Amino acid sequence: MPVKTLLKALVSILFIALLPSPASAQTLYGGISAGLFPGEDLSAEFHMEFGKRWKDRFGLGLAYTGSLQSSVSVSYGIQGAGLQGRLELGRWLVSMDAGAVLGASHSTDWYCNQTYEPAFDPYFRPALGFRFGLFTLGMSSVFTTPLRFSEYDEKINREDPTICYGQEYLERFQRFTFTAGLNFPARKRK
């Protein structure tokens, strides 16, 4: 399965990146954040990251993202894991995640339900944050390539009972959120 192979490759790359190096050059980092974007459509996010920093500025690590977008009659969700590149510029924290979608969901209040058809579906998550010690405020976005869904019938549509069967379609997932979280180690005061 391609997703398992990708995850094994990501863990191997991180293991090699974390091999011992001089103590002054090695620092581990971690973070956890949550985000919301209220409005007619609600977007929510949960994000975790872990990796290694070089020269107190550059970082490479693993990241996990869970994201949801919902409106009155439709909701979308994805979970993804991937590699993260990270750059610290003073109080600013810039990161970019690239990885694979591990699962997705799409539901509506229509007769048809949608099932995600797993495949290698990449996702990208750029983020920008401003640090206050351990605490970080920022914004992020998630983009996917088109995800494949198939439909099945939850209720019988009396007008056309075959309306949901055998239909497949592609759906892109895109959303933007404001985030708040904790990032370790704390930013050094100068």
Word description of this protein:
The chain is mainly beta. It has a single domain, classed as Porin. It has one helix and eleven strands. The strands form two sheets. Strands 1-2-3-4-5-7-8-11 form an eight-stranded antiparallel beta barrel. Strands 6-9-10 form a three-stranded antiparallel beta sheet, with no helix packed on it. Strand 7 and strand 8 form a beta hairpin. The radius of gyration is 19 Å and the shape is elongated. The termini are far apart. The model has no long low-confidence stretch (mean pLDDT 81).
The N- to C-terminal Cα distance equals 48 Å
Strand order of the largest sheet: 1-2-3-4-5-7-8-11
What is the CA-atom radius of gyration, in angstroms? Answer: 19 Å
Q: Would you identify the CATH architecture?
A: Beta Barrel
Give unreliable regions as ranges.
Answer: none
What is the CATH class designation?
Answer: Mainly Beta
* Largest sheet, strands/sense/barrel: 8 strands, antiparallel, barrel
Estimated helix fraction:
under 10%
CATH topology: Porin
What's the order of the H and E elements? Answer: HEEEEEEEEEEE
Strand content: over 45%
Arithmetic mean pLDDT: 81
What is the number of strand segments?
Answer: 11
Number of domains: 1
- Structural category: mainly beta
